[in-house]
Write a structure and sequence with these properties.
This protein is mostly helical. It has a domain of 69 residues. The chain contains 4 helices and 2 strands. A two-stranded antiparallel ribbon has the order 1-2. α1 crosses α2. The longest helix has 17 residues.
Length: 100
Protein backbone atom coordinates (compact mmCIF):
# COMPACT_ATOMS: atom_id res chain seq x y z
CA UNK A 1 0.00 0.00 0.00
CA UNK A 2 1.31 3.48 -0.92
CA UNK A 3 0.34 6.59 0.97
CA UNK A 4 1.49 10.06 1.84
CA UNK A 5 0.90 10.95 5.45
CA UNK A 6 -0.06 14.59 5.83
CA UNK A 7 -1.01 14.56 9.50
CA UNK A 8 -1.35 17.96 11.15
CA UNK A 9 0.86 18.86 14.10
CA UNK A 10 -1.98 19.07 16.62
CA UNK A 11 -3.72 15.82 17.50
CA UNK A 12 -7.21 17.36 17.60
CA UNK A 13 -7.33 17.70 13.80
CA UNK A 14 -8.53 14.88 11.59
CA UNK A 15 -6.01 12.79 9.65
CA UNK A 16 -5.67 13.66 5.97
CA UNK A 17 -4.13 10.91 3.92
CA UNK A 18 -3.98 10.01 0.27
CA UNK A 19 -4.18 6.23 0.13
CA UNK A 20 -3.88 4.05 -2.93
CA UNK A 21 -4.06 0.31 -2.33
CA UNK A 22 -1.82 -1.12 -5.06
CA UNK A 23 -2.70 -4.73 -4.28
CA UNK A 24 -6.45 -4.05 -4.43
CA UNK A 25 -6.04 -2.15 -7.70
CA UNK A 26 -4.11 -5.01 -9.30
CA UNK A 27 -6.60 -7.61 -8.02
CA UNK A 28 -9.58 -5.73 -9.46
CA UNK A 29 -7.90 -4.74 -12.73
CA UNK A 30 -6.29 -8.14 -13.42
CA UNK A 31 -8.44 -10.78 -11.68
CA UNK A 32 -6.69 -13.72 -13.39
CA UNK A 33 -3.35 -13.06 -11.69
CA UNK A 34 -2.35 -15.34 -8.82
CA UNK A 35 -1.85 -13.94 -5.32
CA UNK A 36 1.91 -14.49 -5.67
CA UNK A 37 1.97 -12.52 -8.94
CA UNK A 38 -0.07 -9.73 -7.41
CA UNK A 39 2.20 -9.55 -4.36
CA UNK A 40 5.33 -9.53 -6.52
CA UNK A 41 4.06 -6.72 -8.75
CA UNK A 42 2.60 -4.69 -5.86
CA UNK A 43 5.84 -4.96 -3.85
CA UNK A 44 7.93 -3.87 -6.81
CA UNK A 45 5.69 -0.89 -7.56
CA UNK A 46 5.68 0.19 -3.92
CA UNK A 47 9.48 -0.08 -3.61
CA UNK A 48 10.24 1.88 -6.76
CA UNK A 49 7.39 4.41 -6.82
CA UNK A 50 8.36 8.06 -7.44
CA UNK A 51 6.40 10.28 -5.05
CA UNK A 52 7.69 13.55 -6.56
CA UNK A 53 4.70 14.10 -8.89
CA UNK A 54 2.24 13.62 -6.01
CA UNK A 55 4.21 15.99 -3.80
CA UNK A 56 4.19 18.61 -6.57
CA UNK A 57 0.45 18.23 -7.09
CA UNK A 58 -0.26 18.47 -3.37
CA UNK A 59 1.96 21.57 -3.10
CA UNK A 60 0.21 23.21 -6.05
CA UNK A 61 -3.23 22.48 -4.57
CA UNK A 62 -2.09 23.63 -1.13
CA UNK A 63 -0.98 26.99 -2.50
CA UNK A 64 -4.16 27.41 -4.54
CA UNK A 65 -6.37 26.58 -1.57
CA UNK A 66 -4.41 28.90 0.73
CA UNK A 67 -4.75 31.71 -1.81
CA UNK A 68 -8.52 31.34 -2.16
CA UNK A 69 -8.95 30.94 1.61
CA UNK A 70 -6.81 34.06 2.26
CA UNK A 71 -4.28 32.04 4.23
CA UNK A 72 -0.78 33.49 4.21
CA UNK A 73 1.89 30.84 3.86
CA UNK A 74 5.46 31.16 5.15
CA UNK A 75 7.66 33.66 3.33
CA UNK A 76 9.92 30.70 2.48
CA UNK A 77 7.16 29.24 0.30
CA UNK A 78 6.47 30.27 -3.25
CA UNK A 79 4.57 33.52 -3.42
CA UNK A 80 0.96 32.42 -3.74
CA UNK A 81 -0.28 35.89 -4.69
CA UNK A 82 2.01 36.21 -7.69
CA UNK A 83 1.18 32.71 -8.86
CA UNK A 84 -2.60 33.22 -8.83
CA UNK A 85 -2.91 37.01 -9.23
CA UNK A 86 -4.76 37.99 -12.33
CA UNK A 87 -6.21 34.52 -12.52
CA UNK A 88 -8.92 35.21 -15.07
CA UNK A 89 -10.21 31.67 -15.25
CA UNK A 90 -13.80 31.64 -14.03
CA UNK A 91 -14.62 28.11 -12.90
CA UNK A 92 -18.09 29.17 -11.84
CA UNK A 93 -17.18 28.27 -8.27
CA UNK A 94 -17.22 30.39 -5.17
CA UNK A 95 -14.06 29.76 -3.20
CA UNK A 96 -14.17 30.04 0.55
CA UNK A 97 -12.03 28.78 3.39
CA UNK A 98 -14.28 25.74 3.78
CA UNK A 99 -13.66 22.96 1.29
CA UNK A 100 -11.26 25.01 -0.82
Amino acid sequence: MCYIDVRPLASFFMDNNIIFDIRNYIESKYPKLTLDEIDLIASDIQRRYDYAPIESQVEERLQECAYYANIKLDDDCNNVESQFDGDSIDEGLVHSSEGC
